[in-house]
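Quarterly update, task 2.4: zinc ion-bound model.
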Amino acid sequence: MNPDQRKDWDTYFMDIAYMVSTRSRCSRRHVGAVLVQGKKLLGTAYNGAPSGVPDCSEAGCMIAEDYELAVENGQEIMIKKQRCVRTIHAEQNLLLFTDRIDREGSSVYVTDEPCWTCANMLANSGITEIVYHRPYPKDTGKVTAMMSQKGIVFRRLESYDPPRETATEIEN
Ligand SMILES: [Zn+2]
Ligand SMILES: [Zn+2]
């Protein structure tokens, strides 16, 4: 980027979310989320075990597998999902660490597209906009549909590049 060129707000807040994500100790996924009201930063969070409890780097990921019924071309299929359940997701930590009154009408910038559970919670949290960068295709259909039902602005920064050394490979 041209050093004289000022960062736009989307880039500014997403860069902060990526910086926050570097605190995560889960080897599967580093997710950062920030709460923004107007142009004011009101909270930051990343995915991790509860404080004071061994995290994924100490105790290893706690992998759970579950199955979800989906319909594809008129056929019912079971989709297998594997995830680390040791951590509280960044979006959920953000809700734990912020006040309802601060969230009313605010935006969340999150490095990764929220999973269904996080999306469900965010939809009931008072926030009115979610901005993400990396897609999470497994849940995107139902998450996008729910956000439009709720009237929450849900958008992806497609041409965004994270700051170097903050982005990690994601295993799905
Ligand atoms: Zn983990
Ligand atoms: Zn989640």
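Highlight for this quarter: Residues 89, 91, 114-115, 117-118 surround zinc ion (ligand 2) (CB under 6 Å).
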